[in-house]
Structure formats: C-alpha cells, structure tokens
Design brief:
By secondary structure, the protein is mainly alpha-helical. It has one domain (2-49). Helices cover 79% and strands 0% of the residues. It has two helices and no strands. The two termini are 20 Å apart.
C-alpha cells in the first residue's frame, strides 16, 4: 500500500513539474528517491528473519 501511495505521489509531482509549480529543493528529491529502497530493504529483512 505504501508503494502505491508513493507512486501516486510521484504522478502528482510529475504534473507539478509539467506545470512549472515545483516547490521542493533538490535535497527533498534525493531523499524522496530513497524511500522505495528503504521499503525494499525492510521487506527483504522481514522475509529473511521472519520475526512474526
């Protein structure tokens, strides 16, 4: 569910870029880009260690 929300948010930001309404800094986009990687790492760790 989190990645679906992330994908929709990316689509919204794409529309803002197309309309020249970008209000975020480059630092925001650098961290925003890392979110799916953190989710992937969390999923892999949960599968490997099976804490539940």
């Amino acid at each position: 569910i989190m990645l679906v929300v992330y994908h929709l948010w990316c689509g919204r930001m794409l529309q803002d870029f197309q309309a020249d309404r970008n209000t975020h800094s480059h630092g925001f986009y650098r961290w925003f880009n890392e979110f799916p990687v953190l989710v992937l790492i969390a999923v892999v760790l949960l599968v490997v260690f099976k804490p539940f």
